[in-house]
Amino acid sequence: MAEWQVREHPDTIVLFDVDGTLTPARRKITPEIAEILKILKKKVVVGFVGGSDIAKQQEQLGQNAINEFDFAFSENGLTAYRLGKQLASQSFIDWIGEEKYSKLANFILKYIADLDLPKKRGTFIEFRNGMINVSPIGRNCSMEERNEFEAYDKIHNIRPKFVQALKDAFPDYSLTFSIGGQISFDVFPTGWDKTYCLDHIESEGFKKIHFFGDKTYE
Ligand code: M1P
């Protein structure tokens, strides 16, 4: 018997996006939200599902997040935990293969090299287990530079144009490009979006699945 059978609604799971939902982008959870989640967990099964890797999610939600949430889904569920125990996962590099990945990475780095931006920092491609994350300014920019880039991007459409160039260059790669945050976009196999995490809970027999997230448009 799963430990949540004693809760008021054991057949209901509530899943929360992380950045922009449980916390502001890349920031820590507030004590108020953490307290609300504790109360909620008495009633239903609670999980989070975000695009970031587990290290970043733990920085934001607390080092013990994989035990505090019933389900913890990093990289949309490509890295997954149930009651603190890791579940099986797949990897982006195994799926795409080194040769195709190399062509993709070279295209991305050349495209960024040719981009005229007010500021560039470092870590333009972050290689994760289930996806890559591409940032034209570079992921190790400061909070202030992150906000500046977001504002600049709203005017100049740097990311939408970049994504279109990738779609045109790799039409047969079956990749999805998702602009979810402030400074980057995620690249993953089509189907490995946030719905991927549902594969991990299918066998649990939940009757209701609620998802709360921001930017739920395409
Ligand atoms: O959760 C939304 C996105 O949050 C971050 O994006 P950014 O650094 O651009 O604000 C990243 O972790 C990204 O992978 C994620 O999709």
Automatic annotation (TrEMBL):
CDD domains: HAD_PMM (cd02585)
UniProt main location, coarse: cytoplasm
Cellular component GO terms, alphabetical: cytosol
Binding residues annotated for Mg(2+), in chain numbering: 17, 19, 214
The protein's Enzyme Commission number: 5.4.2.8
Cofactor(s) needed: Mg(2+)
Residues annotated for alpha-D-mannose 1-phosphate binding in this entry: 26, 128, 139, 146, 184, 186
Cell location: Cytoplasm
One GO BP: GDP-mannose biosynthetic process
Reactions accelerated catalytically: alpha-D-mannose 1-phosphate = D-mannose 6-phosphate
Keyword annotations of the record: Cytoplasm, Isomerase, Magnesium, Metal-binding
Record-annotated active site: 17, 19
GO molecular function (one): phosphomannomutase activity
Pathway recorded for this protein: Nucleotide-sugar biosynthesis; GDP-alpha-D-mannose biosynthesis; alpha-D-mannose 1-phosphate from D-fructose 6-phosphate: step 2/2
Classification via Pfam families: PMM (PF03332)
InterPro entries xrefs: HAD-like_sf (IPR036412), HAD-SF_hydro_IIB (IPR006379), HAD_sf (IPR023214), PMM (IPR005002), PMM_cap (IPR043169)
The family this protein is said to belong to: Belongs to the eukaryotic PMM family.
Job of this protein: Involved in the synthesis of the GDP-mannose and dolichol-phosphate-mannose required for a number of critical mannosyl transfer reactions.
Subunit structure: Homodimer.
PANTHER family in the record: PHOSPHOMANNOMUTASE (PTHR10466)
Name of the protein this chain belongs to: Phosphomannomutase
